Amino acid sequence: MKLNKKLLIIFLVFINIFLILLNLSIGEIKADFFEIIKILFSKDNQLLKSTIIDIRLPETLAAALTGSILALSGALIQISMENPLASPYTLGISHGALLGVAFAILFFGLASKWIYFFAFFGAFSTVMILFLLNKIKKLDNLSLVLAGVAISSLYGAINLFLQFLSSDLELSAIIYWTFGDLTKANYFSLKILFICLILGLIYVEKKKYKIFSLELGEEVALSLGVDVNKLKIINLILATFLVSITVSFFGIIGFIGLIVPHLTRLLFGKEISYYFILNILAGSILLILADIFSKTLLAPQILPIGILTSILGAPTFLYLLLRGKKCL
Amino acid sequence: MLVVRNLNYKNILRNITFKIGKSGFVAILGPNGSGKTTLLKCLANIFRDYKGDIFILGKNLKKINKKEIPQLISYVPQKSFGNSLKVYETILLGRLASKGFSAITKKDFEVIEKILEELKIKHLANKETKNLSGGEFQKVQIARALAQNAKILLLDEPTNNLDIKNKILLFELLKKLSKKILIISVLHDISFSLNYADHFIFLKNGNIVKTSHKNFVKHEDIAELFDLKEIIFDDFYENNFKNFCNNI
């Protein structure tokens, strides 16, 4: 049992490496899989090498890291809200972050560092509204998602209003942010994402038993000495922070946080020791795959990856909705 | 061991005061809405905004370090639902919820193994709890609580979903455990509780109307507790318990 899961993790790491290399070989300048490996370690063909290292590699790694981070936040949100339909996208957290980004662009300019802070504040405002609503009246799974939809459309409307106020340059930037797009990736954003992922992973590994005790129900968790409210709030703040970082770099990439935790559970089960790490690896695989499709489906056109994940994600969401309680 | 002093909770519990020793099987009896579950939840650290004091081993429950709580009290709720966690992991959480990183030791597995055998649910160990029947899940919850190795075991109508055989098995197990630890259980099945419990707390409208050792419980007291004119127990259970138990 144990050995299997460890082998599975190694296997998924290899799939990740394989997909990263495969993704590097796709683009205007063709190169097959083995050439890529050769080029990475040699000094010939400088043009292709610099294309790969400066453009394709950051984008691919961004897909891997963003997928991992979104999957981790999705898993954390689903457990903390005890809701299989919850995810950064369905609850409107991503839209909150996007609104923050639009605010920052409009008031502080395109290159402002405020984008990151505002993305977090925007995302966090959604979570706080949901949390307060839930305090006032205990929302069931569906109502919580409906509340998320309501907040998303409110924020969408404010976002449109901001676009109405903005100049052409700002407008195009804001719209660019609404489709998730990994081509903006650079080594600075990768470093930040990597650090965030590692910090997130350390947190969930340290708290995994506490986090999973929420699965036994709030009352049992309390009787086990877990400070349920504090734990939930910290989990949600962390997930919100992680999501807002990805939104502030690449815009909204929807549904990964919803699909991956379910896929992981269906394919590999929900084992405390491996659940989060498997989510991270699966999230990475799914988003690299999406990136590959976004580059090949309409080649040489590149589809924004956010559009693709939404096309994949929306049917999954409907499926989960139809399965109702059983998908818990 | 357990001292409850002037416990008040909203308008549900009023001036609850009692004291219980280190071990034994205590049954809380009372009509619906008398505050039985609320009392249990106060003792289980679930309701913390009560007035008054609860002392466990001389320590005030409100001031105890959170990490110590699972070693002092364990709680089995009345209603609960399964999920995607496997049975052995659910039980493992009883031991590990208060710990960080991978703290599983060989001893944890040994303890869980023993409990699985004792409750006769070893065959369920790798099942997801959402696929269990009500009775099976109830046993898993009890197993999780037992895995905590706590000094006090609190149960809210533990026999709710159990058939007669499993009911007897559970009561026999509780009886055995009550020699070492303190068990406090809300019970509706009066005949069973009269057969197994050592002490009784009668609760009505949020007040304790009587506490009593099993030898001093009168049928009139129980009738009065439930506003009945009289209550008659035939000796069906008493005679058949022994036979049942011998046959299991």
Task: Please write out the topology.
The complex is a heterodimer of chains A (328) and B (248).
Chain A: H1 2-24, H2 33-40, H3 46-80, H4 93-108, H5 114-136, H6 141-165, H7 168-178, H8 187-213, H9 218-223, H10 228-250, H11 256-268, H12 275-296, H13 305-323
Chain B: E1 2-9, E2 13-20, E3 24-29, H1 36-43, E4 51-56, E5 59-60, H2 69-72, E6 73-76, H3 87-96, H4 106-118, H5 134-147, E7 152-156, H6 164-177, E8 182-186, H7 190-196, E9 199-204, E10 207-213, H8 219-225, H9 236-247
Parallel strand pairs in B: 3-8, 3-9, 6-7, 7-8
Antiparallel strand pairs in B: 1-2, 1-4, 4-5, 9-10
Pattern of helices and strands of chain A? HHHHHHHHHHHHH
User: From the coordinates shown, what is the CATH architecture of the largest domain in chain B?
Assistant: 3-Layer(aba) Sandwich
Please describe the biggest sheet of chain B, giving its number of strands, its sense, and whether it closes into a barrel. Answer: 6 strands, mixed
Largest pleated sheet of chain A: none
The count of strands of chain A amounts to 0
The CATH superfamily of the largest domain in chain B bears the name: P-loop containing nucleotide triphosphate hydrolases
What would a concise description of this structure say?
The complex is a heterodimer of chains A (328) and B (248). Chain A is mainly alpha-helical and 328 residues long.
Describe what you observe in this structure.
The complex is a heterodimer of chains A (328) and B (248). Chain A has a single domain (2-327), classed as Orthogonal Bundle (ABC transporter involved in vitamin B12 uptake, BtuC). The longest helix of chain A is centred in the N-terminal third of the chain and has 35 residues, at 46-80. Chain A is built from 13 helices and no strands. Chain A is mainly α. With 248 residues, chain B is an alpha/beta fold. Chain B is built from nine helices and ten strands. Chain B has helices at 36-43, 69-72, 87-96, 106-118, 134-147, 164-177, 190-196, 219-225, 236-247, and strands at 2-9, 13-20, 24-29, 51-56, 59-60, 73-76, 152-156, 182-186, 199-204, 207-213. In chain B, strands 6-7-8-3-9-10 form a six-stranded mixed β-sheet, sandwiched between helices. At the A-B interface, helix 8 and helix 9 of A face strand 6 and helix 3 of B.
